[in-house]
Amino acid sequence: MAHRLFEGKKHAASYLKYRVSPSEHLIQQVLGFLEKRKACPFELAVDVGCGSGQGTRLLAQHFASVVGTDVSPAQLDLAVQYALEANITYRECAAEELPLADSSVDLLTVMTAFHWFDRPRFLLEAHRVLKPRGCLALLSYTMDMELSYDGCCSQALNQVCTEFYAALKLYRDPHIGPSTIELYRAAYESIPYPDKEWQECVRVRKAMPLSGYMGMVESFSSYQILLRADPQKAEQLSQDICQKLMSVMQVTSADAEVVVAVKYYYLLACKPEEA
User: Fold this and answer.
1) Quick one: which of 105, 152, 174, 211 has the most CB atoms within 10 Å?
2) The predicted structure's pLDDT at residue 10
3) Which of 205, 215, 212 lies closest to 146, judged by CA?
4) Strand runs (DSSP E) across 167-220, as ranges?
5) CA–CA separation, 137 vs 107, rounded Å?
6) What span, in angstroms and rounded, lies between the C-alpha atoms of 162 and 145?
7) How far is the CA of 134 from the CAs of 32, 107, 262, in angstroms?
8) Closest to 262 measured CA to CA, from 112, 184, 146, 138
9) Is the pLDDT of residue 2 over 90?
10) How many CB atoms lie within 10 A of CB 76?
11) Each residue of 35-65: pLDDT tens digit?
12) For residue 91, what are the contacts with CB-CB under 8 A and spacing of at least 6?
């Protein structure tokens, strides 16, 4: 059974506000893989575990139709509110039980959600719905994001960030284990398709206020687990880390802009013509 997280309205709003979307470069890597294996035009893309739809919307201009799926009504409510593209629709369903016909999907994406699924069942479902020569793309990123500020003090900043991440590791959900990237490596090895690709470290950099970085880390499952277990401890940890970061930066406001470097990894796989 898949794990159900990120479902509360407050958490969904935080997810929409703070989470970093895949870069255009990453999306182009996925599309380039697909284009080499299937002729245009592309009819249907499906974004599974779409959350509030940040990644789903990136696919809209490339496909006749895009479907985002998620188990969370709160996440989908936000996705619908921000879906300005007429060719996007959303459906509430489990990742392992997609309401899609056999061999109907050109591209199936999962952006930072696959680790929460019943992974063997989902991969079987992906195989069912993909067209021959259709492609699967599983993307995610590591928690150990790096900060820089005004071109200086990066080492000192990231020592504080490492302290933050170490404190939160104690609250990781057992379902994802100590290292999420290992789950994706294992999936890459288990997918029987001969035509597949693995990329381990693609850096995506984004400027944001320090408060945005804090909000992003606070949206992670480990922080949310701590917040539910001990709200005072969670809030004190966040305040202490933010104060330490501001001290290193020599600023008095969390509105100061930092550059956050996120390390993405992904696997791409093409369903064979005859499978």
Assistant:
1) 105
2) 56
3) 205
4) 196-209
5) 8
6) 9
7) 13, 6, 28
8) 146
9) no
10) 22
11) 999 878 899 999 999 998 989 999 999 999 9
12) 67, 68, 69, 99
The tokens for 70 are 């998620």
- Which phi and psi (to 5°) does residue 23 adopt? -75, 165
**Residue 153 backbone class (left: φ over 0; alpha: ψ -120 to 50; beta: rest):** left
Pick from 1, 98, 110: nearest CA to 48: 110
pTM of the model: 0.89
Residue type at 29 in one-letter notation: Q
**Which tokens is 162 given?**
């490492």
Report the largest interatomic distance among the alpha carbons of the chain, rounded to a whole angstrom.
61
In the block, tokens 């997280």 appear at 5
Reported confidence tier of residue 13, pLDDT bands at 50, 70, 90: low
* CA pair distance 65, 120, nearest whole angstrom: 27
* Token pair for 137: 């793309």
What are the structure tokens assigned to 7, written together? 């479902």
